[in-house]
Amino acid sequence: MGIYSLSWKNLRRNRLRNLSTVLRISLGVTILLILVSSGLGISSFLEKSEPTSGIGVPSNTTTENKTNLLSSTVNYINSFLGSSITENQLFSRLEGLLVNLVYLLDGLASLALLIGVLGIMNTMGFNLSERRREIGLLKCMGFAKREILISCTLESGLLGLIGSIIGVVIGTLGIWLISIFLAPDLFNVLPFWLFMGSIGLTTLLSLILGLYPAWFTSQIRVEEALLCDY
Fold first, then answer.
1. N or C: which end of the chain has fewer CB within 10 A?
2. CB-side exposure of 137: number of CA atoms within 13 Å?
3. Which residues contact residue 117 at a Cβ distance below 8 angstroms, ignoring those fewer than 6 apart?
């Protein structure tokens, strides 16, 4: 049995624990993609104003309506609060509020993804602690520390890869549904590289976070591992 087939075989064990980790990762990726597609995530998509198809230059009538709406709003606030705020002041405050909202949404999306990815370290720690005797047997069969390390690290990478792919699929479906009911041009905002980047980054983080439990497990002595009851 090779190290690659061993990683896939072990992935099918502890199914509930692995499934929970995959779902947390996919949820984080889904939230991140939907926020980015709406123009509210990743600091308004890295502050890159990319024109979308179907959106033309606003007409004079539209600009005039917006100006009238802003003026009416300022007049209502001044009359209600007895203040003397100007249109520029109101616009600046609203702009600052929206910027803070964007950063908050960025933080929530990143936190959701981070929680899912960090769960891999916890999951792999439990999974490998339950297989110490098996790892001792593998060493008796001639598996080197390096091979066990690679096998366990690949297992964590597969968890991240599967979770990110599911998240991209669900996120794409969510963006498509939102674009149908709310904004017809929403889906065109996201380039293809963003989907691939989400999968690649999540998988890379999963590999890195799985290194420590994998390294710790690969250092177990054969005698110590064979004496374990699990």
1. C
2. 7
3. 25, 28, 160, 202, 205, 206, 209
Query: Within 13 Å of residue 20, how many CA atoms lie on the same side as its CB?
Result: 11
**Token duo for residue 134:** 């098996």
Q: Are 37 and 176 in contact (CB under 8 A)?
A: no
191: left (phi over 0), alpha (psi -120 to 50) or beta: beta
**Token pair belonging to 119:** 């769960």
3-state SS assignment for residue 194: helix
Phi first, then psi: what are they for 210, rounded to 5°? -85, -5
Residue ranges in 82-191 assigned as alpha helix (H): 87-129, 132-140, 145-181
Contacts of 33 (CB under 8 A, 6+ apart): 167, 168, 171, 172, 174, 175, 190, 194, 195, 198
Show the CA angle centred on residue 188, arms to residues 158 and 171, nearest 5°.
Answer: 35
As a whole number of angstroms, the distance between CA 187 and CA 175 comes to: 6
Express each pLDDT in 107-120 by its tens digit.
777 777 778 788 88
CA 220 to chain CA mean position, Å: 33
Hunting for tokens 């005698």 — which residue is that? 223
Structure tokens that stand for 39 in this block: 């123009």
Show Cβ contacts of residue 40 under 8 Å, excluding neighbours closer than 6 positions: 101, 102, 105
Q: Could you give the CA distance from residue 160 to residue 155 in angstroms, rounded to a whole number?
A: 9
What pLDDT is recorded for position 70?
A: 62
